[in-house]
Amino acid sequence: MIKRLKRRLSYALKVLLGNPSMTFGLVVLAIFVTCAIFSPWIAPHDPLKMDLTNSFQPPGSNGHLLGTDNYGRDIFSRLIYGSRVSLLVGLVVISISSTFGSLLGLLSGYYGGVVDMVIMRLVEVIYSFPFLILAVAVMAVLGPSIFNIMLVLSVSTWPLYARLVQPQVMSIREREFVQAARGIGAGSLRIMVIHLLPNCFSSIIVTATMQMATAILSTAALSFLGLGVQPPAPEWGLMLNQGKPFLRRAPFMIMYPGVAIMLLVLSLNLIGDGLRDILDPQLSRMGRI
Amino acid sequence: MTDYIARRLLVAVFTLFVITFIVFLFIRLTPGDPIQTMLSSGKISPDLADDMRAYYKLDKPIYVQYGNYLWKLAHGDLGFSFTTRRPVVDSIAQVFPNTLQLTVAAVLVAFSIAIPLGILSSVHRNTPIDHLCRIVSMIGISMPNFWLGLLLLMWFGLRLNLLPMWGMGSLSDGLWDYVSHLILPAVTLGTALAGLLTRLTRSSFLDKISQDYVKTARAKGLKERVVLYKHVLRNAIIPVVSMGGLQFGALLGGSMIVETIFAWPGMGRLAINAIQKRDFPVLQGTTLVFAASLMVTLLLVDIINSFIDPAIRYD
User: Fold this and answer.
1) Which of A21, A221, A289 has the CB atom closest to B199's CB atom?
2) Helix (H, G, I), strand (E, B), or coil: what is residue B57?
């Protein structure tokens, strides 16, 4: 038992050492996750506390590591708390959209025929909608809130998973192991969930990792446009929006939130890339994009 | 071939219907009656409110309203702006070419960065040059364009004072005026696409470089340069170009952000302004035109691909 665990650990270590960019991604992600979980203990100041006598403090002054914004709020603390919003939205969105999309892809690939046609047409329709524009329009109508962001992003990204799972299921649904399962009396549901779905896990995980990056970018973009998270909440896109009028006076207000978004998105993309190399050699050979 | 195109067209028409329906629902989903809101805030007169109700057939059942909307749409009528009272079609027609210019410029920026970098990366595979190119392209993909836009604005506009910070130039004021206004927004919009296409160019090149016809070309004694540009590039570029088309939707979304940052008088800015003023007919119109232009692009990419690669038609 211990021997096997050791072997697995050494294998994981070997993979990581052989892929420095993925290791970098994992380390950066771990830092962000730590920040999100332990925000109250890591952040030196209250992210919402205004102090107008202390506004536009440059980085490093008066105990403000990254300076203060136009309301005198500590930028470093706001960044730390901001990681909560981004990671939460990202996680919720990929959980909903990957579950929903994979299930529909599974149904579509397994049953074929009319079911397949209906689901795949629906996929095509949503796929051909310019996604950020749909999001912007829906947010304008429903009103900006974190819940609505999650809703919009989930609804517009599930087709990706359906498109991913459907052809894989189609190609394996007549294989021997499925026929064997059917032969010993397994029902459709059991075959789909126990036998077919696990074969698609690796590509779903890879796509979900990359999609989490996209979800985080989109959340920040919506907030930047004033249609996402609302003030005074500490959110990175919103912080950029608030820093925009002070480009000349306080460039640091837009510098750090941007770096935070980029690092988190970069880390997820690097991890997704690395996972693809490990889990899905076929996909990685076909198109390393 | 004709079958395939006919099927794609059918799907496109169906998609367009669904899009019109979703867009039509926008106004219905809004809590409260927008016309009543405008009336009570004194923005419009009671007469005008009655006219507007009659125009949108708001007293009729919802399917009549939708039918009315489609009928007007079929006649090129997208309604009137709540704020400027101008026909929405006119406002869109005025700014659409500006967005088109911006997106075309962004695509040009993306290709002119991506193809040389991708080739460089694949030719020097697994060397420091390759690693550097891959890091740069990954950063390009991960960088939020609204942040990049602000940084460019700060450096080239504010600090160095090299390029104009907002607005659109006019050719009547000289070529430089036009181009200089275009550079920052186009680079902002094109960077993410450049990153994506660099990676695709690299993988596509690596894939083609190991093919037999390349070996034959080399065996014939052709110069490496000729092999690369004449034999490999021509084939490797196909997926890159079609990916460029598929990413058009992302560019349209990005144009919304970029136009807001650089005050570019385009569709994205029109839409964002409409949201701020709760001008729903304009928001409906811009969303519809955005969706329709993406659909047309996807259709064109598909049809072009099916000409280039016959295998696609039999999917």
Assistant:
1) A289
2) coil
Which residue in this structure is represented by tokens 């910070």? B165
What are the phi and psi torsion angles at B223 (to 5°)? -70, 150
**Which residues in A lie closer than 8 A to residue B315 (C-beta atoms)?**
none
Report the residue of B150, B154, B246, B315 to disrupt the A interface, i.e. the one with the largest count of A CBs within 10 Å: B150
How many CB atoms sit inside 10 A of residue B159's CB?
12
Per-residue model confidence (pLDDT) at position B267: 92
For range A13-25, the mean pLDDT: 84
Residue B26 near chain A (CB below 8 Å) = yes
Residue B197: what residue type? L
Q: Which residues of B touch A125 (CB under 8 A)?
A: 14-15, 18-19
Q: What six digits make up the tokens of A69?
A: 């914004």
CATH of A20-288 given 1.10.3720.10, 3.40.1400.10, 3.40.50.2300, 3.90.470.20 = 1.10.3720.10
Q: Which residue has the higher pLDDT, A87 or A51?
A: A87
Chain B residues with CB inside 8 Å of A289's CB? 196, 199-200, 203, 243
How many helices (DSSP H) and strands (DSSP E) are in chain B?
14, 0
User: Chain A contacts of B11, Cβ < 8 Å?
Assistant: 121, 124
Residue B33's pLDDT is 67
Q: How far apart are CA B251 and CA B75, in angstroms?
A: 29
CA distance B229 to B210: 15
C-beta separation of A228 from A222 below 8 A: yes
Predicted local distance difference test score (pLDDT) of residue B306: 73
Q: Write down the pLDDT at residue B270.
A: 92
Q: Which residue in B110, B117, B261, B259 sits closest to B187, CA to CA?
A: B110
Question: How do the domains of chain A map onto residue ranges?
Answer: 20-288
Place of tokens 């006219």: B51
Sequence-distant (≥ 6) Cβ neighbours of residue B176 within 8 angstroms: none
Please report, for chain B, the start and end positions of each structural domain, with discontinuous segments joined by +. 2-88, 94-308
Is A136's Cβ below 8 Å from some Cβ in B? yes
Is the model more confident about A270 or about B167? A270
DSSP A58: P
Question: Looking at residue B136, what is its pLDDT?
Answer: 92
Measured between CB atoms, does A266 come within 8 Å of chain B? yes
- What pLDDT does residue A137 have? 79
Residues 6+ positions from A132 with CB-CB distance below 8 Å: A218, A221, B250, B252, B253, B254, B256, B257
**In CATH, what class is B94-308?**
mainly alpha
Element counts in chain A: helices (H) and strands (E): 13, 0
Interval B89-101: pLDDT, tens? 999 999 999 999 9
pLDDT at A235: 93
The confidence score (pLDDT) of residue A287 equals 42
Asked if the model's pLDDT at residue A289 lies above 50, the reply is no
Smallest Cβ–Cβ distance between A141 and the set B12, B30, B143 belongs to B30
Q: Please state, as a whole number, how many other Cβ atoms lie within 10 Å of the Cβ of residue A281.
A: 11
Q: Are A217 and B144 a contacting pair at CB < 8 A? A: yes
What are the DSSP calls for B190-223, one per residue? HHHHHHHHHHHHHHHHHHHHTSHHHHHHHHTT--
What pLDDT was estimated at residue A219?
93
Reported ipTM: 0.86
CA A56 from chain centre, in angstroms, equals 32
B252 with A133: CB under 8 angstroms? yes
